[in-house]
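Quarterly update from the structural biology core.
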Amino acid sequence: MLRGFYAKLNKVFLQIRRMLDRFFQLENWPYWGLAIIIGILLVLLVLWIRKRRRKKAAEAPAQDAIPEEAPPAERISPGSLVRAWKEFLRGIPNEFRRSIMLYQPFIVMGEAGAGKSLLINHYTDWQGQSRQFYPSYTNSPLIQFYLGSKILVQEIPAALLNDTSREARSALLNLWKPLFKKRSPKVIVTLNGETLLSESSGSLKKQAQMMRGKINLLSFKRNRPPQVYVVLTFMNHVEGCSDFFDFL
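Predicted structure, tokenized:
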């Protein structure tokens, strides 16, 4: 029985060997070469797919995570504007610090692009004062102080103007109450005349409310309400205004 089994098994091996001998003949090698090339390409394709899946898996947590808000350069706090004022004073010579409290204070406010800085540059000589060791303070994103000739200007940026938080209110009061005990400031409201006509009524109403809210904080001196001036900037870009000014 075992002899019969081994005989059949040997017969099968012989048949397989004959088939392989015929397959590995010289005329069949082009097919072998093509099969090898296809196999290599399949291996490379599998490796590339695996690499791409691993890369996507590594990037997936970062994409699915909720992005954190980038912290602002400087957050408003009840004492932040006072700290900016003290930083401004540190840059001024000691013997000159008290005299600037006798200067006429101005507060310039307006939306972004309203021309606040351009207005200050044209009507103050703060750059000339800086060259004479009386520097202004323009590094803070919260508020800027400009020292001119007999005037002291505070520029309220749009971020602070549109900030209605309790911290912003406290910060402004902490700054303004000590500064304006003896002399009321003049408030300059800047509006971009070039875009004024295209502004929606809702946007203008919002701007007015924001400005009024900041001006109302100066009401702690009820016997001396601040003088408010409205300045239209970029009027030279409005058609016909330059000719009208030349006529005047």
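Residues 191 and 232 are 5 Å apart (CA to CA).
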